[in-house]
Task: structure prediction
Amino acid sequence: MWILKGAVSVTVTLAVVSAVTAVLWLVRLQALGPQHLVFFYLLPTALVAVIYGSRPAMLCAIAAPLCAAFFLYEPLYSFSVANPLELGELVCFTGLALIGAKCTAELLRPVASFAQQNPATDSSDSGA
Result:
């Protein structure tokens, strides 16, 4: 069963990255001038971290700059990036997204573990 759960999280993660890439690709076609579209992947990465945890979010944080380099940066449809500034942008985004994914997932962990370790005290404290 855990294999199915892992497969669902990976599938959803890749689907989210694909959907965001498609939207950003359309924005890139319509807009003129320099763009910094890779940073729009931060919100979906955080959303994946909240729903599925840090591992799928880290997959999202690694897949996003690969998709951005392939579809959004010149030369198109190649993983090479012509402008060193844009390459630095991709590297900074990757570091920021990995840190953000881990922090977002860890913010939810103490609440879940506290709830498991300390079940609701119905009458144990009021009877004394």
Observations:
- The mean pLDDT is 84.
- The first helix runs from residue 2 to 30.
